[in-house]
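Dear Dr. H.,

I hope your travels went smoothly. While you were away I took the liberty of generating a structure for the chain from your last submission, since the lab meeting agenda had it listed for discussion. I wanted you to have the full record in hand beforehand rather than looking at slides cold. The sequence, exactly as received, is reproduced here:
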Amino acid sequence: MKQLNLWTVLGIWAGLTLAGALYATWQGYGGRPFAMTLAAFAILLLGMLVFAARGVAERLAGKSGIAAGFLHGALVFVVYVMYLAGTGTFAIVRAGAIAAFIFVPLGLAVSAGGTAAGAWQDFVTIAGVWVCVKFGPRDWMWPYHGEELAHLFTVLMAVNVALATFLLVRRAKGVGYSIGWGKNWSVYVAGSFIAFALVAIPLGISMKFIVFEPRTSHLGGLLLDPLAILFFTAWPEELLFRGLLQNFLARTSKSDFAGWWTASMLFGLSHITNLGFPNWKYAILAAIAGIFYGWAWKQTGSIFASALVHAAVDTTWHFLFRTL
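The corresponding predicted structure, in token form, is as follows:
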């Protein structure tokens, strides 16, 4: 795989940060709270992307390991306190809750010692991060400026915590946290997307879950929406469910097939609360999607490839179909 170097990744980070700033300004955000929120976004996004550059995670883990993990966790905590102070929402209880969200996983990782990836501490951390993102009090943790931003910041923080825990402290192998391209990847990415579409579209329509209804009102977001879906929905979920969960389940069970299908089923069940509980239609289609995402990850060894398939599916759904 030809993995992007640090400078190229920094260019992507600068472009995404600038796009976010311009979009927020266009939406009417401004003032000191906005400036501090933008700074927090930029730093957390940098933490999320820089580890995907060639050699960065390996060098940090090799030189500092546990210390680098806790240092990164401390940086994330400082960014959060900066956000609270800058937006006038500081409270000890908020800071304490985020400190627990950051440092409990790091502590669990240290307690696992030198055991291979797939220890009980790893699965507890994965489950805990998922629960906090899915059901945590996001609006309370990130009170400026509304639900959409609260979700975005929760995801960014969760990814940074996972990176500090699993790439630096645990030094987990085979995660595939990278941005790059390899031989035959076009076949794996496009093939996974097309194969899933051939299964999911007829099934979704027959289940009365979706209906073909292109929405021209969304065309204004044709450039930014796919990028947002890729980096803030597909990328974090692929890290959690493929790079970590599928990876660790396969190692623990000593079966790539068992890890692949178990992670796919769990991925489906994780969507059962979406759009109302219990949403079995959503869960079934998500589980099927997880099989194709997991196959792309297995073939390429990179969450970037599975995230591209994931983002293509979500983008197609967003622009061409309406959920019933």
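Two observations you may find useful: The longest strand covers residues 210-212. The two ends are 41 Å apart (CA to CA).

With kind regards,
E. W.
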